[in-house]
Each structure stands twice: as structure tokens, then as C-alpha cells.
Design brief:
This protein is α/β, with parallel strands linked by helices. The chain contains nine helices and eight strands. An eight-stranded mixed sheet has the order 1-2-4-3-5-6-7-8.
Length: 259
């Protein structure tokens, strides 16, 4: 079921809550510029295994409200903390993809991993996000031709073949975001770093990264593995930036085993 949670005055986040009676809860944080819908191929499988799956659309993206401000790691992490508090979640696994992984890292350091038993980072945009050159190009494309920018992201996202229909579905997901929030997160990924957050993570951490990732290089996953205590890195040999979909059966089984 889907519902909205107020995180500050005038800002509500959309939450997709599947199998609320499940024995173990997994909270999913999507990547930029997507929404909770990117995890469809987890939500189709994991609830039938007994898991409660919660997908949160960040502010500015998916079905959530789209304010002009609040696009910092601190505020985005605080938004997640508000949702966790209002849903009274505890002992859950936190799963973040790409920029969602960055937000998960800030949540772990800023809120001392409140309620999190296990952390999963998928192709995380950390400890750095976009280079200045990449960010400036994405920004220019976003403010002048956002659909073209999103199509370019779609074209470089996956290593494995995607059908035209899948590409269109993925493209439309990106268009759900507001232009201003899309641009603001590009600036966030350019300007904010997460190096200081990594030593503060105490929860057991699974790092999954496609070795063919053209968005966030695999070397960054190796750096995370070195700097996060109690972490393990699993390379996905046939994936680009979308390991959660490109090797979805392997991913779902690995996630189940880890949590």
C-alpha cells in the first residue's frame, strides 16, 4: 500500500509499503533521478519470501512533494529519519542504490544508524559523486533539454541489453522528478563528499557494485570496502550501474542471505 509521511511543514514523502506484516523489514532508497519503482524486481519477489519492503521516494522525486529546497545530504537523511520514526521501524535493513547509497551513508553517520541492523550499498555514489566536468554537462543538459539528459543517463546506466520498452519505462521514471530537484542533486553530488562519514558506520555492510559501471567507477566500491568497518564487497561481473536489475536473481538471493 502507498501513503504519505510528513517530514516537515508542507513536505510529504511517498512511501510504498509492501507486506506490512512481514517478519523482516527492508527499506529501499532509490537512485537519481528515479523513484521507488526502480526496485520493482525486488518488490515482486522479496515480499513472497516473508519480507516487508518499504520504498521511499525522496523529496523532489517520484510521487513525493517537490519543494524548491532541502537537497543536501543532511536534509535528505533527516527526511528518512522522520519516516523511520513515524513508522516506528527498528531492526531493519537499509538498502541504497547510487545516490540512495549516499543518503544511506549520511543517515548512518548523522543518525548513528538508528534502527539499522544491516546496510546494503548498491553502486553507491560515494565517497564522491560526479566530477565537476560530468556535473556541469548534466546541469547544462538538465536546464536546456532534460528529456535528452535522462535518455543519455538511461543509455549509459546498464551493461546488459535492455528492451526499448524497458528503456521507455526507465525514462518516464526519471521524468517524474522536478527539473529543479534533478538539478539540485547534480550539484549535491558534485559538491558534497562522504569521506568523513565512512568511519562512523558500525552496521555490517554489504557493498555490491557492477564492474562495468560507467556512472560510478568500481574503484569507488573498493574504497568503500577499505574505509567501512565490517564491510564486504561483492563484484557483479555482468552489471553496469544497475546491478539490482541486471543480475536480479543473484542480487535478490544475496540480499536474502545477508539480511
Amino acid at each position: 500500500m502507498g501513503y504519505f509521511v510528513t517530514v516537515e511543514q508542507g513536505v510529504k514523502l511517498f512511501v510504498e509499503d509492501i507486506n506490512p506484516g512481514g517478519s523482516k523489514t527492508i527499506v529501499f532508497l532509490h537512485g537519481w533521478p528515479l523513484s521507488h519503482k526502480q526496485f520493482e524486481y525486488q518488490f515482486d519477489v522479496l515480499p513472497s519470501m516473508g519480507y516487508r519492503c518499504i520504498g521511499i521516494d525522496w523529496r523532489g522525486f517520484g510521487n513525493s512533494d517537490k519543494p524548491m529546497s532541502g537537497y543536501t545530504f543532511d536534509r535528505l537523511a533527516d527526511d528518512i529519519r522522520m519516516v523511520i520514526g513515524q513508522l516506528q521501524l527498528d531492526n531493519f535493513a537499509l538498502v541504497g542504490h547510487s545516490t540512495g547509497g549516499s543518503i544511506a551513508i549520511r543517515y548512518m553517520s548523522r543518525h548513528k544508524g538508528y534502527g539499522v541492523s544491516k546496510l546494503v550499498l548498491i553502486d553507491a555514489a560515494a565517497p564522491t559523486g560526479f566530477s565537476a566536468e560530468t556535473a556541469d554537462k548534466l546541469l547544462n543538459d538538465t536546464v536546456n533539454d532534460r528529456p535528452k539528459m535522462i535518455q543519455g543517463v538511461t543509455d549509459t546506466f546498464f551493461f546488459q541489453y535492455i528492451t526499448p520498452q524497458f528503456s521507455e519505462w526507465f525514462f518516464q521514471m526519471g521524468l517524474q522528478a522536478a527539473g529543479w530537484s534533478t538539478a539540485s542533486v547534480i550539484i549535491l553530488l558534485r559538491d558534497e563528499k562522504l569521506d568523513a562519514d565512512l568511519p562512523k558506520i558500525d552496521a555490517p555492510t554489504l557493498i555490491i557494485h557492477g564492474i562495468h559501471d560507467k556512472v560510478i567507477p568500481f574503484a569507488q566500491a573498493q574504497e568503500l570496502n577499505q574505509k567501512i568497518r565490517h564491510s564486504q564487497l561483492v563484484p557483479f561481473l555482468y552489471s553496469g550501474h544497475g546491478a539490482y536489475w541486471e543480475e536480479r536473481n543473484k542480487f535478490n538471493q544475496l540480499l536474502k542471505q545477508f539480511i
